[in-house]
Design a protein that fits this description.
Elements (H helix, E strand, L loop, with lengths): L2 H9 L31 E6 L5 E7 L2 H27 L2 H18 L7 E3 L4 H8 L3 H13 L3 E3 L3 E4 L2 H8 L4 H4 L4
Antiparallel strand pairs: 1-2, 3-5, 4-5
Helix pairs in contact: 2-3, 3-5, 3-6, 4-5
Length: 182
């Protein structure tokens, strides 16, 4: 890995915990929504059979890289889950509101959110392709959100005027975007 990649993965760490050898720090069935980066250790992944026997599934000899990849994968699955909900169950205006909120929250997580303005380098065609809508339907949905006063649109930005109303309209829950940690 390059030094820049190493620094990126190191920057993802929120908490540091020392774990003694032989201690299970993740137990199957726990409701955990975080990934661990293991440094200076060997670790194993195993499952326990009903009769108590243990089956080792994998040894981690590159724990830092493996954990970083696991974190990225978990985040990607959460975002893909939102896209499935958007495309499968939300009406057009709610789809657009949901996407705008997701982008806004993702930018907030990396410190590129100034409060309400959302940089939108994509075209309305790009939005239509993302939302599974026609260009006309996307344009109509943007107009409806503008008319209701929850967004303001400029050439390359959208201002989220009323985030609470957008959250309600889109049935948006940002928790899965923020509850993964390392």
């Amino acid at each position: 890995m390059s030094q820049e990649e190493i620094e990126f993965l190191e920057g993802l760490q929120n908490n540091t915990v020392d774990v003694e050898p032989g201690v299970d720090f993740v137990v199957e069935g726990d409701d955990r929504k975080m990934t661990f980066i293991l440094i200076y250790v060997w670790s194993i992944r195993y499952t326990t059979l009903r009769d108590g026997r243990r089956q080792i599934l994998r040894y981690q000899n590159f724990p830092f890289l493996a954990s970083g990849l696991s974190w990225v994968t978990a985040r990607e699955f959460a975002i893909l889950g939102d896209q499935a909900v958007r495309l499968g169950r939300l009406p057009a205006k709610a789809r657009l509101a949901h996407l705008l909120l997701e982008l806004w929250h993702r930018l907030e997580l990396i410190g590129h959110n100034d409060g309400k303005w959302l940089e939108m380098p994509m075209t309305q065609n790009d939005l239509a392709d993302t939302l599974g809508l026609s260009l006309v339907h996307t344009n109509r949905s943007l107009a409806e959100l503008r008319k209701s006063g929850v967004i303001t649109v400029s050439k390359s930005h959208i201002k989220l005027e009323n985030i609470a109303d957008l959250v309600h309209l889109a049935e948006f829950n940002p928790d899965h975007l923020t509850e993964f940690s390392i």
